[in-house]
Amino acid sequence: MLDDRKLDVLRAIVQDFVSTNEPVGSKALVERHHLGVSPATVRNDMAALEEEGYIAQPHTSAGRVPTDKGYRLFVDRLSTVKPLSSAERRAIEQFLDGALDLDDVVSRTVRLLAQLTRHVAVVQYPILDRSSVRHLELIKLSDTRLMLVLITDTGRVEQRQVDLPGLIDERTVGDLRARLNQRIAGRPIHDVPNDLADLAEAEPPATRGNASAVIAVLLASLVERREERVVVGGASNLTRLALDFPDSVHPVLEALEEQVVLIRLLGEASRPTEVTVRIGDENPYEGLRSTSMVSATYGSGSRALASLGVLGPMRMDYPGTMAAVGAVARYVGRILAES
Amino acid sequence: MLDDRKLDVLRAIVQDFVSTNEPVGSKALVERHHLGVSPATVRNDMAALEEEGYIAQPHTSAGRVPTDKGYRLFVDRLSTVKPLSSAERRAIEQFLDGALDLDDVVSRTVRLLAQLTRHVAVVQYPILDRSSVRHLELIKLSDTRLMLVLITDTGRVEQRQVDLPGLIDERTVGDLRARLNQRIAGRPIHDVPNDLADLAEAEPPATRGNASAVIAVLLASLVERREERVVVGGASNLTRLALDFPDSVHPVLEALEEQVVLIRLLGEASRPTEVTVRIGDENPYEGLRSTSMVSATYGSGSRALASLGVLGPMRMDYPGTMAAVGAVARYVGRILAES
DNA sequence: ACTGGCACTCGGCCCGAAGGAGTGCCAGGC
DNA sequence: GCCTGGCACTCCTTCGGGCCGAGTGCCAGT
Lengths: 339, 339
Known about the structure:
The structure is a homodimer of 339-residue chains.
Chain A (H helix, E strand, L loop, with lengths): L3 H17 L5 H7 L6 H14 L2 E2 L8 E2 L1 H11 L7 H12 L4 H16 L2 E5 L8 E10 L2 E8 L4 E7 L6 H15 L7 H4 L3 H4 L2 H20 L5 E4 L2 H5 L9 H8 L1 H9 L7 E5 L11 E10 L2 E11 L4 H21 L1
Antiparallel strand pairs in A: 1-2, 3-7, 3-10, 4-5, 5-6, 8-9, 9-10
Chain A binds a DNA duplex (30 and 30 nucleotides) through α2 and α3.
């Protein structure tokens, strides 16, 4: 049905359309790519490709434009990996190497991705549930109030205030801190609820109320932020390519403000370091029907921590973008593993 | 020069233009506002206002549009404070009351402001330099490595890793922690460098190297982030009003990504709770020449912590926006004072 | 000092013509 | 049987001209 030449034609159409943003015609195609056949032949192939739904005409007497399905085929079978230039490699290292803490890693990564791909970048914080406890700190604010600070091995810091049912002194705070850390330091957050299940009961009656209050707040903090955080950057890249969004960029910008949507999009990415592409109507969210998202999961070692990616028009340089997103994801994973 | 009626005319022009986004003519003016004079008279007034630079014509035979100077006069002398509706008041309380920690306060504030004003919201984190130390925590990661966590009274948490020149044990870490906190807990960050100036020297020789390393990192962390953090939200409001930006929204979006620009804009706001308006070309930044920023400083008590505000087209509802920004700033200040 | 009247200006919109890119199809050649 | 050159056709885009109407500035009159 689709012989090699037809696939070549499709590839050429995608490449030309991506670079010119204009429907590409048969004549222009044979001029710019050495297909070895005449425009008339190409026209026949195009008709076949259109029949199969890989390309479409904006109107009669216009050239062809790839459809979502066409881009999909291109990404799956027709594109070759484009290695990063050494300049890009260097940019990644220089950009990320001086990061001070997790916030800094994330914000630098967003800027880096946006600059590298010239699209909108989206970076998710390491998912709490996939991290481990590094340390739990209790700070006495007053006789009935503590501040609880949870630090994870990925560098996330969560803090909460705890109102205690009874009075507490420094000594007891210290004891409680020691006991809690003994139980949960180094443990996956996922297991913490279990680890602490019986701790309050084992506590001497005098301090049991306070201990329970602390544990309750701690456990609550682990689920509250289950809706994880994402950071977005490079939104001005949208307006640079405004022509590519038929219904204007407004719905896209709106989608970018819906954390939930972004998290869901990123969340569906696959295995660590593998790059996922979601094209046009493969997108679950209405406002993103004319966009593509290229994402990858980053992690330290074999542990997937969270995902990052970029969002752009369907007409994008898939090989280049995929290479950049993949490289950044790998590098971020490495940095987080080190710290 | 500008008698009362001319000012009335200017006020009417601003109000009409803000609500219709069309140059307003003399006839429409007398119809919609009971000025008590004929269109011809209004035309004379308009000519005078144009002479003085308060209004302008997009082209001959078009109505008049306020200039930057016209908006300025309107804001300074012609607008009356618009009290918030009770629904808005309630929205502010409901939105901000459940905030868990500082990150949460900031992100909720951004969303609240964007929703309330329907413009782009910008919120700055409390400036480190204006906060005080609540607690400094040292966590031993390995024999030569500590994590340093600084918690301020405004809820900011800064963390850094410290590589030590020598070995260290838990006991020494505890001692150092205690000594540091004794010196700086409760102190304004501003004074910390002074407070710690002689601490390293007073340290016993055996631990002096490590103590110096910790102090160095701590002091560095206080200046590194001197470029303070801001959070932006509601960018989709820009495209909703795309018509209002002659050169498209692109430069505005770009400016929004320049943290430095935003910080500078916010930083020039005035005294706590007072609302500042910067209109069009009063803006120091090129890309924001066709926007207005309404900002206010928030603080706890009399202490100014940082600023927040919204950015929108010059054609905005100044009284309403100013009221909203002011109210939110006051409320945020109150919340931070409580915690 | 205000008003009604009037000539004038100029952008927006509609329309039709010209131009051009691209297609589909067909008949002929390798 | 597949490819090619040729040709008629479609339809978007661009451009120019003419009409319309909103709005102005000015002037003479009250």
